[in-house]
Amino acid sequence: MIFNKLCVIGLGYIGLPTSAVFAANGVDVLGVDVLPEVVETLNRGEIHIHEPGLDEAFKEAHRSGRFKAALKPEPADAFIIAVPTPFKHNETGDYNGQPYKLADMRAVASAAESIAPHLRKGNLVVLESTSPPRTTMELVAPILEKSSLKAGVDFHLCYSPERVLPGQILRELIENARVIGGATPESAQAGADLYSIFVKGKIIQTDATTAEMVKIMENTTRDVNIALANEFSRLADKFGVDVWEAIRLANLHPRINILSPGPGVGGHCIGVDPWFFVEAAPELTPLIYRARQVNDAQPQFVVDAVKRAFLARAAVPGGGESAGSILKGKKIAALGLAYKPDVDDIRESPAAEVVRILQKGDAAVLACEPFKPDAKLPGITIVPTLDEAIRDADLLLLLVRHTEFTQLTPETLTKKTKARIVVDAVNGWDASAWKNAGFRFTRLGSGKI
Ligand code: SAJ
Question: How far apart are alpha carbons 442 and 389 in whole angstroms?
Fold first, then answer.
């Protein structure tokens, strides 16, 4: 199939880089977003998200005249849907008294609705958004068929999951293997023709539901493995073992690859997608369900480590504070709010959850996020600089392993802060350096204060 014009619905972390790469490869792209400010920013040649290399790639697409943004789709040869599939915040399901989260598929449904009036015979529609099994055939196909054209007969329909890692999107978009699941084998072939325009990785054709399942299985595997690492951190804490050292040693085994514990799982993928399986079949997913619970409880584990660090200090003569009230009035500098290292995305961030729990205990927390100094999060005080966050703090809490933070040394910080207690939730700092500089140092999952 030949593709001269492409319409990409959703201009976020996936839709925008995908648009830029298609435009760079000679395809005219109309990018569509429901947010007028996003459309205006992009049509000015600027971008609204941070992703290494995206600024240059997008500017090139904009200069070439091959990319335009709009609020509504237009007729095209192919349509890609790359909109968010979050979970519902105000509604849960219930299985034997156990609540589970529900997928909010409204953005996918309305993207399909917006395409239907423009659909022509021979077009290709691809869903890229991570979606519960059977979404392509049972949600998207019927909406598109309101056009009176039939999926797999009059137009091609595919599911092709995005699998790129934030922070490395542009490279992975091109180099990663691409799974393309078609409503029919002919649809899968049309999808393969589209992505072969820029994909250098292997392109594998399958059916739509298999492709949907592949994507959720990948993210669920990661979630369960992170939950295991987090559970190990709790065990190590109990036994006075340093979990990071134990993991390093275990990973010397040729068939073991334990992931890293931390403040929990954030972002809009790994902490969300496993729920799609639970919602689809709660009776078949006890392990996936428990892993979600373990990871969601991890911010509280970080807060417990902070409390212990304060209590250890209170235990010295003149202390006398109790575990219940230990956080009251304590000044804490929270270093990092992004959901993971070296990205600016603060959505669904476990670091922010840690701050919220600390504040519930009446701690006074000043947070800083170098990738988004002007970030706003309800109920959280975010200051623009690290210096401001740490100046009057009693305790420094490292929550995100940003390179900028891991390069900090106790020597440089000693003069800038009153704090002499450090809690490192991400194994970002060298314990002995901080101890030698006179700090009381705790690392999450090390069992030692
Ligand atoms: N995390 C840990 N310990 C680890 C690894 C990660 O606590 O050892 C935490 C991170 O700090 C973060 C969360 O997990 O809070 C998720 O981070 P991530 O780097 O594992 O994944 P994402 O959400 O940035 O991107 C994932 C990727 N999926 C897989 O690696 C299987 C990516 O390939 C997907 O395209 C993306 O989800 C997506 O959009 O679905």
Answer: 19
